[in-house]
Amino acid sequence: MILSSLTAAISLGLVSAAGTVSIPTHDAFFDNIRQYCGQAFEGRVVEDNFTGIETFKENRLVMHVRECSENQLHIPFHIGDNHSRTWILTKTGAGISLKHDHRMPNGEPDDGTMYGGHTVDAGWEFAQSFPADQYSKEDFIRRKIPQSIWNTWHMYIYPGEFFSYRLTREGRELRVDFDLSNPVDLPPTPWGYEDID
Where does the signal sequence lie (predicted)? Predict the structure, then answer.
């Protein structure tokens, strides 16, 4: 019974020869982003109700699909002269993980880094959501921002049109849209990363 189930999964493309579990919507979403590897795009804030110290609206926003492998993407998110943020998307075998790698100017990890979430369902080839994972919730409690345990990050991509990064929770929404029809010059190397030849 187990063998026949495994055979059926392989025939449906759910299990690769290497044994990594995957499903078509996750693969398609991942590949929709990966096709832009090596390119950068400018974004604009279309929703932001945050009234804190840092506002995205006052800075030039650029995403760079910088490093790509079959199972992982590194996408720095540059906010003006701040090159501290990199989104890391990873196929985990149970879905897709989104992590936020935050670095200091000297390259060392920021106190709040590697938070993020993981898909909990199939999603769609053009849209995936990432509710905060347990590591992130514990980190938010440690950093005395318990409201963030309800964070869900969303990414939408419509090839040739736009890519969106969105954060939602009760009372908080941020969305940045990037124009995929108009590549821009590549931004500087993100903090903590090495130059690419």
Answer: 1-17
Smallest CA-to-CA distance from 75 within 25, 14, 34, 19 is with: 34
Residue 88 within any structural domain of the chain: yes
Tell me the residue range of the domain where 76 lies. 24-184
Q: Which two tokens stand for residue 59?
A: 């800075």
Stretch 30-40: mean pLDDT: 98
What is the model's pLDDT at position 20? 58
- Give CA–CA dist 147/133, Å, rounded: 14
What is the tens place of the pLDDT at every residue in 36-60? 999 999 999 999 887 654 567 889 9
Tally of structural domains, the chain: 1
Radius of gyration of the chain (CA): 18
CATH code of the domain in which 152 resides: 2.40.128
Burial call 23-50: b when 16+ CB within 10 Å, e when fewer: eebbeebbebbbebeeebbbbebeeeee
